[in-house]
Every structure is written in structure tokens, then in C-alpha cells.
Design a protein that fits this description.
The complex is a heterodimer.
Chain A: E1 24-35, E2 38-49, E3 53-57, H1 64-71, E4 81-89, E5 92-93, H2 101-107, E6 108-111, H3 122-132, H4 138-151, H5 155-158, H6 171-183, E7 189-193, H7 201-214, E8 219-223, H8 227-233, E9 236-243, E10 246-254, H9 255-260, H10 265-271
Parallel strand pairs in A: 3-8, 3-9, 6-7, 7-8
Antiparallel strand pairs in A: 1-2, 1-4, 4-5, 9-10
Helix pairs in contact in A: 3-6, 4-6, 6-7
Chain B: H1 2-44, H2 50-54, E1 57-58, E2 63-64, H3 67-98, H4 104-118, H5 121-135, H6 142-167, H7 170-178, H8 183-194, H9 196-211, H10 215-218, H11 238-248, H12 253-288
Helix pairs in contact in B: 1-12, 3-6, 3-9, 4-6, 5-6, 6-9, 7-8, 9-12, 11-12
The chains are: A alpha/beta, B mainly alpha.
Chain lengths: 276, 289
């Protein structure tokens, strides 16, 4: 794995550097995406900064999730999905034919809207992807599993029943297990697609706190419909809107700027609840 | 006023009539089953004993037992499953995971399987005789009978396994891909285990079908009722034994009834296990949704 020196390794959770000096990690240039003849995203250009939380906001169907799953090339799995433009991570094009997609996805964790634990034991849920990426020594996998479960605050709740089915956990615990599973591969980037929207308010609060704690160590891109949440946790916000049948990036900036002094009138209308 | 009352009465009578008809039809179905089983028990129970299960048939099956026949049946079944399971499950994995649902190749494979599922078993028997027994030189043997049965089982195994794999939520595939897992790992470590109850249910249905089969084995595994020495020996299956006793052996009714009773009890047991698996599978799917 060619991880650079800025990649954070596993260890006790500590706050990373604050992102006062934004360095772009993901650079998106004039990126467009369509499903068959139906355009989903048009001409998106933005930089996502290392160690920061970037929230993608906007109404349903404006291409936020398509954008998110373009970053780890999960859109490759959709037949008829065509892309144009360029996405670079650490300067290298993710669509480079020589690029190993499995290695790319190892570098980029993803958490979905509905918790998606595999129908296996809690332990096996994390162990399976580790084995796939060549981490097979028992001592190593045990250490990693304990560490990531600690990181997501699940260790105390499940350490005595690691062999129980992951499906026996509550919704919030399942979502934290999925985050732990992603963290186990020590990714640089975490993509989150409305990770709290299927959870009750208390579980949602726990997951939200967890995401805040991950800031600095990981570069996080999060799709959310909960504007208050975006405002609480994100450093940057990108506002998407549908124009001419395709999702477009309307405005990108510091979270506070987007919410308090938006430049674009659509953004103002959306964040104030007048449109969307 | 009185008009509405009479309309209500007519409705009540109609409801009652429909209810009675449905009950009667359901009763007929049960009665057919009870009749068959009670007939077999009446005709065969006295003949049934431990010795009957282990002894060799004597006097063309009028006396003795069905020991070698049970062994041949088990061997034929074993061969059929060993050939059909890998083929069937791999085909199902191909159809469910690797080819597009509307693509030409998937369509061709699925269409062939549908045709195969509709072919009468006697045609399978003739094909098995021509291909395995004569062309490949296996003669009348357990091997050629088992392979012929394998061809018959393929459609059942493929369709149950394919629908089992399709029932596995797509979220698992997406999550696995997002974790950088290869398609092969996803299939073998995640999707097939998740579909295991469906695979098991299909397997048991297939066993039931194979054990009940007569026509496909007539020209392939043959009639010989001795204990088979090897897979290239001819061996008589239980269903053929029953057919032979009742059609060709005068005075063979009692052992025929007893053999049929053994077969029916075995099939019932297998069906119960299959049902148990299917119910457990559905419950698991509800839990995991």
C-alpha cells in the first residue's frame, strides 16, 4: 500500500491537526456523470480538504449520492453509468486504467444510509475485509478489531459477545459497527451517505459525536439532509441543486459562510428552509 | 326493509356455500393422501421389519428384503448429487451474479434450463441410455443412472439457488465492494453462506425428486437386485423395485407395499427437513431486513 506520510495509522483516538491550512486531498475537475441517457451530475469542480469534514447538502435527487460513490468508484458497479472529467486523490487520477480499484476502495471507507452489517458475527464482520486485504495474523486482526471497536465506542458494549450475530445489535450499534469495519482498513477518506437518517435521535446523536471525533484523522465527506447536523459537524459545505435535469454544484465554502452568508440566492433559500 | 334482509340472507347462504365447497375440496386432497398411506400401511406393515430393510431379495423379491436396493438407491443418489451440485450451484452463481438479467447469454442458459425442466423423465432415461450407457460405454450401471438423474436435477438446483442468491440484499454486495472485497470473495464468503438455507432447501427438493424417479433409471441403472460391487455394476433403485414387484412379479404385492412405505416415509422425512429449512430461512430474512 503506497500510503503517504500524512495517512493516520490506527492508535488511540486523538484529535488530528485542525484544518486551518487547507490542503486539497480530493480534487474534482469538471466531473459529470450520467446513467444511460439520463444525466445525474454536470460539471462539478471542487477541492475536498485533508482532515476536514465536508458536508454535501441539497434536495433529494440532486446527485449527492452519485457524487459520493464516484469517489470510490462504486458507480462502476452500475451498468450504463458513464463519467466525464477527472477526480484525483493525492494528485493521482482514480480512473487511471492502471489503478487497482480494490486498493482504492481500501483507502476510502464508505458508510451507507441503512446500516449494512453482514449476516455474520460481529467479529467476522471486521475480520472478513481484513483477511481480504492480507491481514491474516490472528494477533493483528484481534488488535485491530479491539482498536476500531474502541474507536467507535462499541467495545464496552459488545466485547463479551463478539461471536453474536451482528444483526442482533440495535440500529445505532450496527451503524457504528459499519464505521468500525471501514476504519479497520485504515482508510484515508471516509464517505458517509446520510449515516444518521435511519437511526433514532439518540443513536443519531451518538453517531454524530463519533463523526466529529474522527475529524482530523480522516478526511470525511458526508451527505446529509439534516442541515442542523451539517452545521454542527462540518468544516466545509457543498450545496448541490438540480439545473437542466442534472445535479450541479451551486456553492462551496466554509460551513459557516454557506449557512450565514451564502453568495447564491438558491443556497440562501435552501439553508433558510424556503426552498428544497 | 324486508328486501335488505333477504339480500343479506342470500349473501349469508352464498358465503356458507363457498366455505363448505372449499372445505370439501381441501378434505378431498387430504383424503387422497390418507388413502394412499393407509393402503400402503395395510398392505405392507406386516411385511416390514429390520430384516426386511437389510436382507437381500429372494424369489424375485417375493421374499427377503430390500438391503441391496437401499444401497443402490443411496449410491445413485450420491452420484447424482456429486455431479449436479457443483454444476447447478455454479450455474446459479453465474446467472445471479455475473451475467446481466436481461442479457442474451443469461437468457439462453435460463431458457435451456426451462426446457430441461419440462422434459419428461422417460426422455431423460432414453438420453441417458444412448449417451452414458452406450456412447460413453458405462453400460447399465449405477454411474450412468446417477449421471442421468443429475441432468434431471439441474433445473431444480439452479432455480432454487439462483432465487436464493437474488434474495440476498444488494446492500451486502455494495458494502463488500466498498470494502475493496473481490467478487469471488463476496460470492463465496458472503453471498453463498447468506443463501445457504435456500441452497439446502433446493438440495432436499432435488433428493426427493431423485428418490422418486423411476423412468429415467429404467434404461440406465437397470434392474439387477444384487448388492452392487462397484459403481459400474447395475443397481436397482427403490422406485424401480416397486415398479417391478407390482408389474412383473405375481405375489409381489406385500413387499411392493412395504417398499413403497419405506420410500414414502423417507420422502416425508426429507420434505419435513426441507420445509424446516425454508421456514428458518424466511424467518432469518425477516430478521435481517
Amino acid at each position: 500500500m503506497g500510503q503517504d506520510s500524512n495517512a493516520y495509522t490506527l492508535g488511540p483516538m486523538q484529535a488530528g491537526p485542525v484544518c486551518c491550512d487547507p490542503q486539497p486531498l480530493i480534487q474534482v475537475d469538471d466531473f459529470s456523470l450520467r446513467y444511460g441517457a439520463k444525466p445525474a451530475l454536470a460539471n462539478v469542480t471542487l477541492d475536498i480538504y485533508r482532515g476536514c469534514i465536508t458536508a454535501l447538502i441539497g434536495p433529494s435527487g440532486c446527485g449527492k449520492t452519485s457524487f459520493l460513490s464516484s469517489i470510490n468508484r462504486l458507480t462502476d458497479l452500475i451498468p450504463d453509468c458513464r463519467i466525464a472529467g477527472r477526480i484525483r486523490i493525492d494528485g493521482s487520477d482514480i480512473h487511471d486504467p492502471a489503478r487497482n480499484v480494490q486498493a482504492l476502495r481500501r483507502q476510502i471507507g464508505m458508510v451507507f444510509q441503512k446500516p449494512t452489517p453482514f449476516p455474520l458475527s460481529i467479529h467476522r464482520n471486521i475480520e472478513l475485509p481484513l483477511h481480504e486485504h492480507g491481514i491474516t495474523r490472528r494477533a493483528d486482526t484481534r488488535a485491530i478489531i479491539e482498536q476500531v471497536l474502541e474507536d467507535v465506542g462499541l467495545w464496552d458494549e459488545v466485547h463479551d459477545r463478539l461471536d453474536a450475530s451482528a444483526l442482533s445489535l440495535s440500529g445505532g450499534q450496527q451503524q457504528r459497527l459499519c464505521i468500525a469495519r471501514a476504519l479497520a482498513l485504515s482508510p484515508q477518506i471516509l464517505l458517509m451517505d446520510e449515516p444518521c437518517s435511519a437511526l433514532d435521535p439518540i443513536a443519531s446523536g451518538v453517531v454524530e459525536d463519533l463523526i466529529s471525533r474522527l475529524r482530523g484523522r480522516y478526511t470525511i465527506v458526508i451527505v446529509t439532509h439534516n442541515l442542523a447536523q451539517a452545521r454542527r459537524i462540518a468544516n466545509y459545505a457543498a450545496f448541490f441543486w438540480v439545473k437542466g435535469h442534472a445535479g450541479r454544484l451551486v456553492e462551496f465554502g466554509h460551513c459557516r459562510q454557506i449557512f450565514e452568508s451564502p453568495v447564491h440566492e438558491l443556497t440562501a433559500a435552501y439553508v433558510n428552509g424556503a426552498r428544497g | 326493509m324486508s328486501e335488505t334482509v333477504s339480500v343479506k340472507l342470500i349473501h349469508a347462504h352464498r358465503d356458507r356455500f363457498a366455505q363448505l365447497t372449499i372445505c370439501f375440496v381441501a378434505f378431498l386432497v387430504c383424503a387422497a393422501f390418507v388413502w394412499i398411506v393407509s393402503d400402503l400401511v395395510r398392505g405392507g406393515w406386516a411385511h416390514l421389519s429390520w430384516d426386511f430393510l437389510v436382507d437381500s431379495p429372494r424369489d424375485a423379491g417375493r421374499a427377503g428384503g430390500i438391503g441391496p436396493i437401499l444401497v443402490s438407491t443411496a449410491l445413485i443418489l450420491l452420484i447424482a448429487l456429486m455431479a449436479a451440485l457443483p454444476l447447478g450451484w455454479m450455474t446459479a452463481a453465474l446467472l445471479a451474479e455475473y451475467v446481466s438479467a436481461s442479457g442474451g447469454f443469461g437468457y439462453a442458459v435460463r431458457y435451456s434450463l426451462q426446457v430441461l425442466a419440462g422434459v419428461p423423465s422417460i426422455v431423460f432415461g432414453l438420453f441417458g441410455n444412448a449417451f452414458f450407457s452406450i456412447y460413453l460405454g458405462m453400460g447399465f450401471s449405477i454411474l450412468s443412472g446417477g449421471l442421468t438423474l443429475a441432468c434431471m436435477l439441474l433445473p431444480i438446483l439452479v432455480s432454487t439457488a439462483e432465487s436464493g442468491l437474488r434474495a440476498v440484499p444488494d446492500a451486502y454486495r455494495l458494502s463488500a465492494a466498498a470494502l475493496g472485497m473481490s467478487r469471488a470473495t463476496t460470492l463465496f464468503r458472503l453471498l453463498l453462506p447468506a443463501a445457504a438455507p435456500a441452497l439446502a432447501a433446493g438440495l432436499l427438493l432435488g433428493i426427493g425428486r431423485a428418490m422418486a424417479e423411476t423412468a429415467a433409471l429404467l434404461f440406465t441403472s437397470g434392474y439387477v437386485d444384487r448388492m452392487p460391487g462397484s459403481l459400474l455394476d447395475s443397481g436397482r433403485s427403490l422406485a424401480i423395485h416397486i415398479f417391478d414387484l407390482s408389474m412383473n412379479v405375481s405375489g409381489g404385492d406385500a413387499p411392493a407395499h412395504a417398499s413403497a412405505l419405506v420410500l414414502i416415509v423417507a420422502l416425508l422425512l426429507i420434505n419435513m427437513v426441507a420445509m424446516w429449512f425454508t421456514i428458518g430461512w424466511q424467518r432469518r430474512r425477516i430478521v435481517s431486513e
